[in-house]
C-alpha cells in the first residue's frame, strides 16, 4: 500500500461539504493532504474553467491536520489548475475528487464537476480518482470500505488517459454485496431530461430523478451495480490525451 503521497483533494459540492471532509480524513492515512475546493456548490459544471474573470483564492482553517486548505471562487477544474500551477510547491502524486453527494454514473458522468476536476488532474499528468455516493449524509458505508479500496486503487496504476470512478450504493454495510470492479457506463441518465415548466415557458427546472429503472440498466454496468447493492468501480477515459 502506497504511503507518504502528496494528495490533492477537490470536489464540486464546495469546501464546506461533509463528503470532502470524509475523503480528506481517509486520505490522511496515505500521505500529506492539501485541499483546494470551490467556495460554492458547483455540481454539473463538468470541466468548465473561468476565463475572463478573476478567481478569488483564500486560505482557510480546516478541522483536520491537512497541510493547507484553500477556498476558491471558481469551478472544480479551476481548483485543480490553481493548486497545481500556483498553490502547491510541487505537483501532487494523485488527485482525489469527492466524496460527491449524488451518484456519478451512466451518461451523467459527462456533466459531473467531480469527474471534471479529476479529468483536469489527468490533463496535468496526475493520476486521479473520483468518489461519489447517493444523496444524503450517511457516510457509514464509504467510511468503512473506502480506506482499503483507496489503497487498492492507489496501487493499481492506470494508463495516463484513464481515471478511476467509484460510486457507493445507498445501502448499509450489512446489505452491501461487495465491490464490483471494471463496471461499464450504463446507457442511462440518473437525471434524465425531465423538467418542471413554470409560468408558461418563462422558466424551467430539472426534476430530481435519482432512481433509474433497474430493468433498463445492463448487468455489469455502474447503475446496475448501485441499484443491486454493489460498490461500483469503473474507469473513465480522457479523450484528448
Biggest sheet details: 9 strands, mixed
Backbone CA Rg: 17 Å
Distance between the terminal alpha carbons, to the nearest Å? Answer: 28 Å
Number of helices: 5
Flag low-confidence runs.
none
SSE run: EHEEEHEHEHEEEEHE
How much strand content do the residues show? 25-35%
Helix content: 10-25%
Would you summarize the structure shown here?
With 241 residues, the chain is α/β, with parallel strands linked by helices. It contains 5 helices and 11 strands.
Description of the molecule:
With about 240 residues, this protein is α/β, with parallel strands linked by helices. The protein has helices spanning about 20-25, 75-85, 115-125, 140-155, 220-225; strands at about 5-10, 30-40, 55-60, 70, 95-100, 130-135, 160-170, 180-185, 195-200, 205, 230-235. The chain has a 9-stranded mixed sheet, sandwiched between helices. α1 (about 20-25) packs across α4 (about 140-155) and α2 (about 75-85) runs parallel beside α3. The mean pLDDT is about 95.
Amino acid at each position: 500500500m502506497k504511503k507518504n503521497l502528496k494528495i490533492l483533494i477537490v470536489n464540486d459540492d464546495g469546501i464546506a461539504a461533509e463528503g470532502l471532509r470524509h475523503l480528506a480524513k481517509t486520505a490522511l492515512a496515505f500521505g500529506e493532504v492539501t485541499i483546494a475546493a470551490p467556495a460554492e456548490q458547483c455540481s454539473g459544471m463538468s470541466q468548465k474553467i473561468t476565463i475572463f474573470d478573476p478567481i478569488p483564492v483564500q486560505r482557510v482553517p480546516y478541522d483536520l491536520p491537512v497541510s493547507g486548505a484553500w477556498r476558491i471562487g471558481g469551478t472544480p477544474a479551476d481548483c485543480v489548475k490553481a493548486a497545481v500551477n500556483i498553490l502547491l510547491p510541487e505537483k501532487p502524486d494523485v488527485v482525489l475528487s469527492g466524496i460527491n453527494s449524488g451518484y456519478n454514473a451512466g451518461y451523467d458522468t459527462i456533466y459531473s464537476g467531480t469527474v471534471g476536476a479529476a479529468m483536469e488532474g489527468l490533463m496535468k499528468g496526475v493520476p486521479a480518482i473520483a468518489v461519489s455516493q447517493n444523496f444524503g449524509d450517511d457516510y457509514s458505508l464509504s467510511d468503512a470500505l473506502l480506506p482499503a479500496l483507496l489503497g487498492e486503487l492507489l496501487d493499481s496504476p492506470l494508463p495516463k488517459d484513464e481515471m478511476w470512478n467509484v460510486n457507493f450504493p445507498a445501502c448499509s454495510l450489512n446489505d452491501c454485496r461487495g465491490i464490483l470492479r471494471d463496471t461499464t457506463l450504463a446507457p442511462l441518465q440518473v437525471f434524465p431530461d425531465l423538467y418542471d415548466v413554470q409560468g408558461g415557458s418563462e422558466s424551467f427546472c430539472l426534476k430530481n430523478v435519482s432512481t433509474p429503472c433497474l430493468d433498463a440498466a445492463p448487468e455489469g454496468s455502474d447503475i446496475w451495480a448501485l441499484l443491486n447493492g454493489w460498490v461500483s468501480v469503473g474507469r473513465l477515459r480522457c479523450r484528448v490525451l
